[in-house]
Please model this.
Amino acid sequence: MEIPIILDREEVLAVARIAEHSEQYDDMIALLKPYIEQKQDDLDFEERNILSVAFKNAVGMRRIAWRAAHKAASMYKYEKYGAQIRQYLQKLEEECVEMCKDMLTLIQKHLLPKVKKFSQDPESEVYFLKLQADYFRYVAEVGSSGDRVDKAKTRALNSYNSAIEISEQLTPADPIRLSLYLNFSVFCYEVYDQKDKAMEIAKQGLQEAEADLANIDK
Model:
């Protein structure tokens, strides 16, 4: 049974919350996509949050499945089934990548353009650029070597750098700015294996946030 299209904000959010309680994250996405595509202005905090929950869990389950299958595939007892296992891993990879593409399409065609056109809010722009970078990172993480992975790495890096540049307009203790620094450090650690740089980025973000909070308390 297909999920009905609902365009009224309160109805969309209510049904999406029910789907969340039921852990039906694909249904949440099916509910939210048409609403977001037709929405004329920037998402508010609640809308951003529920969209993030839907995709984070839907993609997250597929990332976990791919990692578990990839690890199990290296076991000796499965060695003789290599061709079949590679086909299955490819299936899991494509499912994850396609869902990441859904989120990236929403960001690039609807969310970021509406931020720039209607609100011009640096916090929203940083939020969606960070999200864009995260989903390019997920594509790079589950992929094998190849052109798609290389492009995803480059686009993730460019998106993180753009978000960091705009985040200078936010206070160092802003949760979105801090999250950006931490996620960028994860990217450097896991995708590029730059452990020292990753620690330096995370430390910088935390220290700047702590200093900012200390100044507020004075």
Remarks:
- The radius of gyration is 19 Å.
- The first helix runs from residue 9 to 21.
- The chain has a mean pLDDT of 93.
